[in-house]
Each structure stands twice: as structure tokens, then as C-alpha cells.
Amino acid sequence: MTGLEQEVDPQDVGLDAGRLGRIGQHFSPLVDEGVFPGFLVVVSRGGKIAHLARHGWRDVERQLPVETDTIFRIYSMTKPVTSVAAMILYEEGRFRLTDPVSDYIPAFADTGVYVDGSYLKPVTRAATEPVRVWHLMTHTAGLTYGWMFRHACDAMYRAAGFEWGGPKGYDLERSCDAWARIPLMFDPGSSWNYSVATDVLGRLVEIWSGKPLDEFFAERIFGPLEMTDTAFHAERSLDRLAVLYTPDPVTHGLQPLDPMGGWATRKPDMLSGGGGLVSTAGDYHRFAEMLLGRGELDGVRVLGPRTLDYMTCNHLPGGRDLASFGHPIAGEPDPGLGFGLGFSVVVDEARHRVLSSPGEFAWGGAASTCFWVDPAEDLTVVFMTQLLPSSSVPVRPRLTPLVYQAIVD
Fold this sequence. Notes:
Layout: H1 17-32, E1 38-45, E2 48-59, E3 64-65, E4 72-73, H2 78-91, E5 113-117, E6 122-125, H3 133-138, H4 152-159, H5 172-180, E7 192-193, H6 197-209, H7 213-225, E8 245-247, E9 254-256, H8 258-261, E10 278-279, H9 281-292, E11 296-297, E12 300-301, H10 305-311, H11 322-325, E13 326-327, E14 337-339, E15 344-346, H12 349-352, E16 361-364, E17 370-374, E18 379-384, H13 396-404
Parallel strand pairs: 7-13
Antiparallel strand pairs: 1-2, 1-18, 2-3, 4-10, 5-6, 8-9, 11-12, 14-15, 15-16, 16-17, 17-18
């Protein structure tokens, strides 16, 4: 996607231009102070871009600025794309949400549940029910991530070579078989834990469609939506790829995270449906607008409207939220947020304690990118930067009130 630009006067869509300016007034000093390398934010209402702001650098050392076509590693903002891909196939009758994953990946038939012991000698028992497709899409499967450092199962992932990424030469099929050999943290459906579940879902997309994940994404989502810069690597556009940074514990400034940043420069061994994509603000804006359009953008329908509605309601049992039902991501207890099929969903804006709307759905990425869609306000927001981890300076609690205070109609 090229030609990203403001399309409408803010006041014509119920936004105050002066108040929108507070977004840059807040984030630009963080760039100047060396907290963020740079940022790009897109605010759209009524299907038109009403505010576009950028400041800082895609490459601090070479003083290359953030441009509207800068390519960013979006990490877990890949998950909504994979969830949409799965539901495209759901609409074609390729599977049921209640299907056991072992119907398609046999290794999951024998996965036990952790009870006690160390990561070297875990004590396990049989699960009360199988891991189902629905569990993958809601992060209630009992899977985990190696980088979370909270549980013996996390350590088992690291011991198997899965912390950030996976062992050299492991493709998605081999990775899924390896995860299936590691005990689950809990019985499927009994709790929520952020995990490689969406990577497993990406493998299922390959099985159901008979195509590699990158090909399916390109044919069924990126091509139809004209998301021309979104892929699993930026090998042909390295001049536009932002450098990945992390806080420097000594200088308290930024340092390039070259080993991880380099993964985006070439096609990976594993096509990670949970965190492998790179994209631009313009491309992801189009994806978000398709979501706001209940599956349709510019006359192109990716999903049926009722499918999108179903994906963006709270699927946690009993209407629970992430704070009460699961194992929240470090630093993000998330009261008032439920979870749908691939998105967080605001279920109680008062408990959420961040200015928002009921039904607003969202997610973010490990390098501090984020987006949200608010059907009630006919609003989408995309924020891009490259600072890992996202817990360094949480963006969403800062950005959301700055956007909502600018709505004046």
C-alpha cells in the first residue's frame, strides 16, 4: 500500500484537529528523549484518514526518518491476520471450531497436562478434554511461550529451543509437533494464557487450504486488500525496513537488537502465524478498515459480516475478563477486557480503566505496535514503532485517551 495521506478534515468526521495534535505532543518528546526511535500513527473515522502523524527515525544511527511507507515488524499483530485466514476457511466448511486439533495434527493426541516437578522432570496427567480449534483461537489451549519466564512449561519451551523463534531448520509443521510433546499448562478451556496457539492455527490453515501460509495470506487477504508490503520478510525492501531497538540498560537510551531484527530480512524457516509478519501503517490500516467494515473494504469481501461479529464478541466462559480468567501478560493485567477469536474485546470500560468503548477490539505486537477498531465510534487506529519489548513503554494506555478525547461530536 502506497500513498498514505490524510483524506478528510478532522472536523468533518467529528474530531478536533487541535486535540488530535496532542498525540504528537505526547509521543514526539519520547522520541527526542531517546525512549522511542520513532513512530507513525493513523487515525481514521468514517472510513477516512483524519489524522496522520510521524516523528523520529526508522534508523537512528543513520538518521533515516520514519516515512509513510516504512516497513515495521508487527509481531503479534500477525495473530488477527491468521485468525481471519482460519475463519475464511471456516466459512467454506473446512472445519468446526469444536474439532480436536489432533484430527489434523496427530501429535496433539497424546499431549498431557503439567501437574508438578521441574522443567526437566515434569509430572503430568491426561487432559480432561482435547485441545480444540476454538481453544487455539482464544488462547485457552494450555500452550505457552518460552519468553515469559513464569512457569515450568515456559522453561520446557526454552529447553526445546523456543524462546524468541525456534531451532534452526524447524518449519511450522516440525515446530507444532515439538510443542505437542511439551505438557500443557492447564486443561484446555479452563484458563487463558498467551501462547504459540496462533502459530498452531497457522499450521492448520496450511493443512485445511493445502497451501503454505504465506501463499494463502497473499491470495486470500493481502492481494484482495491491496496490502502490497505485508509479508513474512522484507528482503526486497530492506531500505524501508525500520531497525529494531531495545532499551540500553547502561545508557538508558536505545540499542539496535540486530540478532532479532535480522529475522525480517529473509524468508524464515518457520512461517509464524503468531508473530512473523512485517507490514506498513498503510497496509495494516486497510486490514483494520476491513475489520471495521465487518469483513468488507472497497467492494472486496474477505469475511461475512456475521462471522466478523462472532469473532469480536467475548468468548471467555461466563463473560469473564482476562484478569479473572487467566494468566495475564506481564505488566498487563487487563481488567475489563475479554477475548474473542483473535482479538481482545472491551467488555467493561469502567473496569478497563482506560477511556474506550464497549465492543472495541484490538491487539498489539512485541515491538510496541498496536491497533484497535471501535465499531461504536466508526474508528480505527494504527500505531507503528520498533521498540522491544512492548512492556518497556506501554503504548495503548497512553494512546487511547489521546484519541478519544479528540472525539467531539
